[in-house]
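FAQ: What does a ligand-bound record look like?

Like this one, built around 5-fluoranyl-3,4-dihydroquinazolin-4-ol:
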Amino acid sequence: MRVDIITIFPEFFGVLDVSLLGRARRESLLDLRVHDLRDCTHDRHRTVDDTPYGGGAGMVMRPEPWGEAFDALLPEGEQHDAVVVFPSPAGVRFTQPLARELAQVPRLVFACGRYEGIDARVAQHIAGRARVLEVSLGDYVLNGGEVASMAMIEAIGRLVPGVVGNPESLVEESHEAGLLEHPSYTKPQVWRGLEVPEVLRSGNHGAIAAWRREQAIERTRRVRPDLLPPEAAEAR
Ligand code: JBQ
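The answer part, i.e. the structure of the complex:
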């Protein structure tokens, strides 16, 4: 999978060199390329924003540098088998099903704008060349799309075949079964007076599976009742 990131803070993405995604890059499972939007400006101050039409606080990103950046990545006149993601608090919610869907796409482009956003004509213009999605990580305020893009790239990247060594660990995660994950324990058996639940040491695999499922449902009911199907959520 190829992933292009357009940003005014390319240094944010240094973390993509470490851990699981770093290894995936070195093994060419992920072709991640970071582009500095300011390289597409031509004035002395490398200006990327301007005041909003209609007034109001904050600045809006000018369309011209974005147009140039997209022309280089997704040339005009062709339809590209790519999804362009605009992280935005006004977008659709990013969820595990959306991550799974985007992990199937050969090419993703993340367009990182600042909070007040990018001139709306940019997304409109690029929609003629590729599929465009405005996506939000959640209902809170971030300063820009960089951190949101990174979270999405990690969630999507780990679903690309080969990135996570043991594919079974993809299935047993929180949110994959529509439930939060059960609690986990390792050695020692007693730590600071706290004991590992007896059933996990019983060797009874049926009992262990049943306990884990019950714990997952109980935890989900307690902290995320919104995730449960209505019939399972009586005690909301
Ligand atoms: C979103 F994607 C962005 C970009 C800027 C601010 C944001 N705030 C909340 N969630 O992911 C977001």
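Follow-up question: can I read anything off the structure? Yes, for example: The radius of gyration is 22 Å.
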